[in-house]
Specification:
By secondary structure, the chain is of the alpha+beta class. The chain has three domains: 129 residues, no CATH class; 52 residues; 57 residues, Arc Repressor Mutant, subunit A, CATH 1.10.10.60. Helices cover 47% and strands 12% of the residues. The chain has ten helices and six strands. A hairpin with a 4-residue loop joins strand 3 and strand 4. It starts with 12 loop residues before the first strand and ends with a helix.
């Protein structure tokens, strides 16, 4: 994004830079549209955010919608921020994660004093885009594509199961425990989780544990054996095998190599 930021929240929009405009309410008529813009629209009701690659609806007439926050972002800016993969998806919807929902709510209903509101909303607009791209690259944005195979209620339960894994992977989580706590039976959890996230529950737990372990290797001085235990592994051998399969190096070599880079 350009560093020449300025805002216009009083008019229902924020000009983040020549590459990005955030539309915060309906009826906006004079917000600038970046060239080769892509639309990111956030639904304020359902827990989803959607990506629309065709900016045609915004090229004429009144901008904005009552139920949405809309980001118009230049394609080049999306690519520069690491979101090039989003550009190959077409018109696609994702569930709004808890992190993105909190940013969107803060953007629509800012707690800042009125004098600082434009600056606050500008910062939140940048945060939303950067966080959305980060989550997409990490595979943590859940596509709506799976909803045709399950009810919205079961979809929400699958998302709750995924969030439990994110929050508590280092604990002893079993299929039965996750299913019971998310209001599902074991078989429905197994089938639905695979359909929605394209991995098994066991794979999701292992990936989250290794993510936590890799982070601790780089940010703490804990011995490798302690990191394995803190990440949810019962013995160092199983931790080392899993880590080697995932990263192609032992935990010790990973720590030394990454810190020396």
């Amino acid at each position: 994004m350009s560093e020449e930021y300025h805002g216009g929240a009083a008019g229902g929009f924020i000009v983040v830079s020549p590459e990005m405009t955030a539309i915060l309410k309906e009826g906006v008529i004079d917000a600038p549209i970046p060239p080769r813009a892509i639309e990111f629209s956030v639904a304020s009701g359902p827990r989803v955010w959607t990506l629309q690659l065709d900016p045609a609806p915004f090229l004429a007439g009144v901008l904005g919608r009552a139920d949405r926050i809309v980001f118009l972002v230049q394609r080049d800016a999306v690519e520069r921020l690491g979101g090039g993969g989003l550009l190959t998806l077409g018109v696609t919807g994702f569930h709004l994660t808890a992190e993105l929902r909190a940013i969107a709510l803060a953007l629509r209903e800012p707690a800042a004093e009125i004098e600082a509101r434009s600056t606050y909303q500008l910062a939140k607009s940048i945060e939303f885009m950067c966080e959305a791209i980060r989550l997409f690259r990490a595979g943590e944005l859940v596509s709506l594509a799976g909803e045709g195979q399950m009810s919205p209620a079961d979809t929400r339960r699958m998302i709750a199961a995924r969030q439990m894994i994110v929050d508590r992977a280092q604990e002893k989580l079993s299929l039965d425990y996750i299913a019971r706590n998310c209001g599902l039976n074991r078989s429905k959890l197994t089938r639905g989780f695979k359909a929605l996230f394209d991995c098994t529950v066991t794979q999701a737990i292992a990936e989250r544990r290794l993510e936590l372990a890799s982070r601790m290797l780089l940010t703490t001085d804990l011995p490798v054996s302690s990191i394995g235990y803190e990440s949810g592994y019962l013995n160092n051998a199983s931790f080392a095998r899993a880590f080697g399969r995932r990263y192609g190096r032992s935990p010790s070599d990973f720590r030394v190599g990454e810190l020396a880079a």
